C-alpha cells in the first residue's frame, strides 16, 4: 500500500510501471544465463613426479649450474674476503694454541726451519703464501672503509676499486714476504 500511495514517479505509479514489465523478467529467465552449471568430479590423488622429470615433460630449460656460472668480480672478491678472514683467524688460533701447548718457544722452531737448508726462493714463496691472506684482507678492508664513506659504489667504480685492491694486495704480499 505504501508503495502504491507514496511511490508515484512523475505521473505514473510504481505498481503501474511494474505491471508493464515483460513476461520474461517476471519469470526470472534473465538470471538463468548468469548461473554457471557446477559439476563435481571424483577426487584423484596427485601424481608423485620427480622435479627433473616434470621439468623435462613441460619442456622447461635447465638452470645454469654452479660449474658453468661465472661469478662477477665483486661477488668473487666478497667470497675471498671472507675466506681470507677465516684463514687469518685460523693463523691466530693456531699460534695461540701453539704458544700454550708446545713445549718450546718460537726460536726453537725457527732453528728447525733454518736447519732444513731451504733455498731463498722456497722461503720467499712460503712467506708469500702465508702473507697473502693478510695482504688481501688488509687491502680489501681499506676498500670497504672507502665504501663506508658512501663513495665508489657505482658499478664502474666497484670494478675499478676491485682491480686496484687486487694490485694493492699483491704489492702488500710481496712487501711482507720480502721482510
From TrEMBL:
<dbReference type="InterPro" id="IPR014314">
    <property type="entry name" value="Succ_DH_cytb556"/>
</dbReference>
<dbReference type="InterPro" id="IPR034804">
    <property type="entry name" value="SQR/QFR_C/D"/>
</dbReference>
<keyword id="KW-0349">Heme</keyword>
<keyword id="KW-0812">Transmembrane</keyword>
<dbReference type="InterPro" id="IPR000701">
    <property type="entry name" value="SuccDH_FuR_B_TM-su"/>
</dbReference>
<feature type="transmembrane region" description="Helical">
    <location>
        <begin position="83"/>
        <end position="103"/>
    </location>
</feature>
<comment type="pathway">
    <text>Carbohydrate metabolism; tricarboxylic acid cycle.</text>
</comment>
<dbReference type="GO" id="GO:0009055">
    <property type="term" value="F:electron transfer activity"/>
</dbReference>
<keyword id="KW-0408">Iron</keyword>
<dbReference type="GO" id="GO:0006099">
    <property type="term" value="P:tricarboxylic acid cycle"/>
</dbReference>
<protein>
    <submittedName>
        <fullName>Succinate dehydrogenase C</fullName>
    </submittedName>
</protein>
<feature type="transmembrane region" description="Helical">
    <location>
        <begin position="158"/>
        <end position="177"/>
    </location>
</feature>
<dbReference type="GO" id="GO:0006121">
    <property type="term" value="P:mitochondrial electron transport, succinate to ubiquinone"/>
</dbReference>
<keyword id="KW-1133">Transmembrane helix</keyword>
<feature type="transmembrane region" description="Helical">
    <location>
        <begin position="115"/>
        <end position="138"/>
    </location>
</feature>
<dbReference type="GO" id="GO:0016020">
    <property type="term" value="C:membrane"/>
</dbReference>
<keyword id="KW-0472">Membrane</keyword>
<dbReference type="InterPro" id="IPR018495">
    <property type="entry name" value="Succ_DH_cyt_bsu_CS"/>
</dbReference>
<dbReference type="Pfam" id="PF01127">
    <property type="entry name" value="Sdh_cyt"/>
</dbReference>
<dbReference type="GO" id="GO:0046872">
    <property type="term" value="F:metal ion binding"/>
</dbReference>
<keyword id="KW-0479">Metal-binding</keyword>
<dbReference type="GO" id="GO:0005739">
    <property type="term" value="C:mitochondrion"/>
</dbReference>
